[in-house]
UniProtKB/TrEMBL annotation, chain A:
GO CC terms, sorted: nucleolus; nucleoplasm
Protein name per UniProt: Ribosome biogenesis protein NOP53
Chain positions covered by the region annotation Disordered: 255-318, 330-363
Origin species: Maylandia zebra
Entry's Gene Ontology BP terms: ribosomal large subunit assembly; rRNA processing
Compositional bias segments (type: Acidic residues): 257-267
Subcellular location: Nucleus, Nucleolus; Nucleus, Nucleoplasm
Taxon lineage: Eukaryota, Metazoa, Chordata, Craniata, Vertebrata
Known role: May play a role in ribosome biogenesis.
TrEMBL record, chain B:
Purpose: Component of the PeBoW complex, which is required for maturation of 28S and 5.8S ribosomal RNAs and formation of the 60S ribosome.
Recorded name of the encoding gene: PES1
Compartment(s) where it occurs, according to its Swiss-Prot or TrEMBL record: Nucleus, Nucleolus; Nucleus, Nucleoplasm
Residue stretches spanning the membrane: none
Principal cellular location given in the protein's record: nucleus
This protein's name: Pescadillo homolog
Lineage, opening ranks: Eukaryota, Metazoa, Chordata, Craniata, Vertebrata
Length: 428, 572
């Protein structure tokens, strides 16, 4: 019912709506009765209430306030009322505000300050101001103080005389003075020089003989390496004829299993001989008789006598052998001296060798040599051989400054498991 | 028994040494930190004489340090800094993980750093000690300055190394102390004499950049850290000994001033100063500006124990050295683009010469190619385009050879396109009897002052003569041989003739006797010593008898003769 009415109203309100009766217009038909609205709902306050008059009044008031000071009400603000003095007692007089300094006194203080300033004494407040250091926030402290700062400053470290800052015992206890370095540490660990110049054959344009010399040395190194390899090969080599053929394998496996009469007899005969021999060796010896013992004693005595006589005659004869004795002594001394010299030379050579300082032995680097066809004719075409970095590193190892080490390998704690993807499992 | 038994491995060498891991635990440092500390302080592992004793019976290869050295390390203040750094890293990682960027910045600003000055003072108490160890430092610094600035090692280290090497080269130029140069296939070896110490260092070629993999960069970086500090302090001292300003400044009073416009092309403003310095073309500023220095002739007093001869020899040496220092004075060089500029500029300036190069190569070129007063142009190409008349076009080896020979060698051997004479090593000292290459002999002759031209002519003549003589001899021999061959082929008899021989009659009996005697002799030889002794005795006895018999017979004869003579006399 309501819907039909609504539809009618909409249709009537359309423009160009024609009524059947010419006297009746569409406006008469629409507005018959005002619709009843619920003004209690918030939604409808804004829609159906007319507040135009209130708005006008408020606008008026605001306009008045804008143009005049306070507007309608000319009451003082509350805050002003609070801040009023509500006591009848007058505030005390500020005596100091009325006090003017004595001109004389002022003059005297000024003169004193001048005198002090002339002497260089700065008043305390000024001193504190001056002592305030400006905080340098522009440059980073760590960068400037770092050891490898490219702009770092150097000073005369050997020229400064050390000042005695305090008692030595005090300095030692407070760790301000450094512990003395033990003398042994100043010795160099090797007698080798720091920089070993390459042989003259290593020049970029060498002369023939020195280049040949260098090539010969390199050749010898290679020979040694080859020798070691050959030795290893020889040790591992085996004769192909010694490989087990099927026949020998069969015989080995069958040994002792196959029994033949002939073989048994052969085996028995040598066995008996062996036993007899063995029996003979185990036979017990008879006891010695008195005679035998006496004889043995007499022999012993004779032997001893003979020896003593011989020794005596030797001693006597030594008098005549003095010359030969002298020569033999001389020879012995010579040999000992030779041996001493050899040992000393060996020690010296050992000093020049790199010491064994850790797990790995020192591996000398490959010799830097250019073959005859690699030699360049001019400095422009020179192709450098070997690297100075490697050379320095090896030199440090050779001089016992660091121990030879190899690169640390990557060791896994847990085993890695490899699993095929399902797709790949189907394929393979 | 009681408790005073001596236990094994409780005293002696076993207690003097400590293994590396034990030492590390004692110091409470990680292994790389421990290694760095040992390198900085100069503490090296030792190989004990009796490894079994020290290793408590086993011969496993271990690294040993002296216990006293490790105890000394405990007092080092840098150890604390290492620990602080470890904690800094830990905190930084945490802040990164929590993405607290303000904390990260704050931590980075307060990164713990350490300085090595006190270590230098402790390891090298005097300046001369430091000078003795400067070889290694120089090599490391030169090596690091050639590294690429990729970030594998700190870029700051590389920059610092470059600055220090440039300062060193400028010092050597100012003090004219370079003595020997050697171009090898590995690098260039220099030797200078500074305050009586001979310092040798090697510089790698600028164009070689292969970095081997198995070199421990951390160890090298630690060494470089120590050596840069050392070299810096030494440089300061050396500069102050020459009255030069340190850090070095270019002398603004010099004639040749680089033009302002072209500077922007080469380097940023911050780096242009270092680049100008590294060009090595300008001289350094002095602390006290040197006006005309009058060198007063010092009175010569012979020191104790020296004769006049020795003093004169010393004076001669000094004069020679002075002459050597001014080797290239007055000469103007121009370097072409393909030659190693820095090395050649260094060598030329060290001996008083003037040098310049093309503007496009480097900053600091003082004069151009078209300058008429250039005396030598260093070129390494087979040919050159435009040739000026009053200058020599030579290859760079001439300069190095002149430095080694200490005189100006004749330029003719080093012209373009020709084969160069071999570059000999000045570090080789030949003893008497060793092989001396002919070039060196020639050089020594030149040094002695013989005129080069005549010598060359003489040599040429000699060579010609020698060749001629050789030729003649050879020709003569050949002729002889040919003759003989001809003769033989022609069937003629040569000098040798065949004549009939003489017949010898053989006596059979004699032969038998001889054979027997030989057999006897053989048997005697083959006898044993004892038997021979007996035989000799027997023979001696026999012979004695025979001798006695002979004696008696002789006596008898004598007696008979005398009797006869008496009778004769009596008769008469």
């Amino acid at each position: 019912m309501a819907a039909a009415r609504r539809l009618k109203r909409v249709a009537i309100s359309q423009p160009g709506f024609l009524t059947l009766n010419p006297k009746v217009t569409p406006t008469d038909l629409v507005s018959s009765r005002r619709k009843r609205v619920n003004k209690n709902k918030k939604k409808n306050w804004n829609k159906y209430s007319d507040v135009q008059d209130v708005e006008e009044f408020l606008e008026d008031v605001r306009h008045q306030e804008r143009t005049t000071g306070k507007g309608k009400s000319s009451r003082p603000l509350r805050i002003d009322l609070i801040l009023q003095h509500d006591s009848l007692v007058a505030p005390p007089k500020d005596v100091l505000a009325y006090q003017k300094p004595n001109a004389k006194k002022l003059r005297r203080t000024a003169e004193r300050a001048e005198k002090l300033a002339a002497n260089g004494v700065v008043p305390r407040s000024k001193k504190r101001l001056l002592n305030r250091t400006v905080v340098d926030r522009t440059s980073k402290k760590t960068e400037t103080e770092a050891n490898n700062n490219p702009e770092r400053d150097f000073y005369d470290i050997w020229g400064q005389e050390t000042k005695d800052l305090g008692e030595p015992w005090y300095l030692q206890q407070t760790r301000k003075k450094l512990v003395k370095r033990p003398e042994k540490l100043n010795e160099k660990p090797s007698v080798l020089p720091a920089v070993e110049v390459i042989a003259p054959g290593g020049s970029y344009n060498p002369d023939f003989f020195s280049h040949q010399e260098l090539l010969r040395e390199a050749h010898e190194v290679e020979l040694k390496k080859k020798k070691v390899e050959d030795k290893l090969e020889r040790q591992l080599a085996y004769n192909k004829a010694d490989t087990a053929t099927e026949e020998t394998i069969l015989r080995e496996q069958v040994e002792g299993l196959v029994e033949e009469s002939e073989e048994e007899e052969e085996k028995d005969a040598p066995k008996e001989d062996g036993e007899e021999v063995a029996v003979g060796a185990i036979a017990v010896a008879d006891k010695k008789t008195e005679r035998q013992r006496k004889r043995e004693k007499a022999e012993k005595m004779k032997e001893q006598q003979r020896l003593t006589e011989r020794r005596q005659t030797e001693q006597q004869q030594q008098l005549f052998q003095l010359r030969s004795i002298k020569t033999s002594i001389k020879q012995q001394e010579e040999t000992t001296q030779i041996r001493q010299k050899r040992r000393k030379a060996k020690e010296e050579a050992q000093k020049a060798q790199p010491r064994r300082l850790g797990k790995l032995k020192f591996q000398p680097q490959d010799m830097e040599v250019q073959l005859s066809d690699e030699l360049a004719g001019s400095l422009r075409q020179l192709k450098p051989e070997g690297s100075v970095l490697m050379d320095r590193f090896k030199s440090l190892q050779k001089r016992n400054l660091i121990e030879p080490r190899e690169r640390a390998k990557f060791k896994r704690r847990l085993k890695v498991k490899y699993v095929e993807k399902r797709a790949f499992k189907e394929i393979s | 028994m009681g408790g005073l038994q001596k236990k094994k491995f409780e005293r002696g060498s076993a207690t003097n040494y400590i293994t590396r891991n034990r030492a590390r635990k004692k110091l409470q440092l990680s292994l790389p930190d421990f290694r760095r500390l040992c390198i900085l302080k100069g503490i090296y592992p030792h190989e004990p004489k009796h490894k079994k004793k020290v290793n408590k019976g086993s011969t496993a290869p271990r690294t040993f340090y002296l216990l006293k050295d490790i105890r000394f390390l405990l007092h080092e203040p840098i150890v604390g800094k290492f620990r602080e750094y470890k904690i800094f890293v830990r905190k930084l990682k945490k802040a990164y993980g929590k993405t607290e960027w303000s904390a990260v910045e704050r931590l980075r600003e307060n990164k713990p750093t350490y300085k090595l000055d006190h270590i230098i003072k402790e390891r090298y108490p005097t300046f001369i000690d430091a000078l003795r160890d400067i070889d290694d430092a120089l090599c490391m610094c030169f090596l690091f300055s050639t590294f690429a600035r990729t970030g594998k090692c700190h870029v700051q280290t590389i920059q610092l190394c470059r600055r220090l090497t440039v300062e060193w080269m400028n010092y050597v130029i100012a003090s004219r102390s370079l003595r020997k140069v050697f171009l090898s296939i590995k690098g260039i070896y220099y030797q200078a004499e500074v305050m009586g110490q001979l310092i040798t260092w090697v510089v790698p070629y600028q164009f070689s950049h292969d970095h081997p993999v198995d070199v421990d960069y951390r160890v090298m970086a630690t060494f470089t850290e120590l050596y840069t500090t050392l070299l810096g302090f030494v440089s300061f001292r050396l500069y102050s000994s020459l009255n030069l300003v340190y850090p070095p400044k270019l002398d603004s009073n010099g004639e040749s001033e680089p033009k302002e416009e072209s500077e922007d092309d080469y380097a940023m403003n911050s780096e242009s100063y270092l680049e100008k310095l590294s060009a090595l073309s300008a001289s350094l500023a002095r602390v006290v500006s040197s006006a005309d220095e009058e060198e007063a002739q010092l009175d010569q007093f012979p020191s104790e124990g020296e004769d006049m001869e020795k003093m004169e020899a010393r004076e001669k040496e000094l004069k020679q050295q002075e002459a050597q220092k001014k080797l290239f004075e007055g000469l103007k060089f121009y370097l072409n683009r393909e030659v190693p500029r820095e090395s050649l500029a260094f060598v030329i300036r060290c001996f008083g010469g003037q040098v310049s190069w093309d503007k496009s190569v480097c900053i600091g070129s003082t004069y151009d190619v078209t300058d008429e007063t250039i005396t030598h142009q260093i070129i390494d190409r087979p040919s050159v385009g435009k040739q000026y008349i009053n200058r020599y076009y030579i290859q760079p080896q001439w300069l190095y050879d002149c430095v080694n020979a200490k005189i100006l060698l004749p330029v003719e051997d080093y012209f373009l396109g020709g084969t160069l004479p071999p570059h000999l090593s000045p570090f080789v000292e030949e003893k008497e009897g060793d092989y001396v290459p002919p070039e060196k002999l020639k050089m020594m002759a030149l040094q002695r002052g013989e005129k080069p031209e005549q010598e060359e002519e003489e040599e040429q003549e000699e060579d010609d003569n020698g060749d001629e003589e050789d030729d003649e001899e050879e020709v003569a021999e050949e002729k002889n041989l040919k003759k003989m061959e001809e003769q033989r082929s022609q069937g003629k008899s040569l000098h040798v003739k065949v004549t009939p021989g003489k017949l010898k009659v053989e006596n059979k009996a004699r032969l038998e006797q001889e054979e027997k005697a030989e057999e006897k002799r053989l048997a005697i030889m083959m006898m044993k010593k004892k038997e021979k002794y007996l035989y000799d005795k027997i023979m001696f006895g026999k012979k004695r008898k025979v001798r006695e018999a002979n004696k008696l017979a002789a006596k008898r004869k004598a007696h008979d003769d005398s009797e006869k003579a008496k009778k004769k006399k009596a008769r008469k």
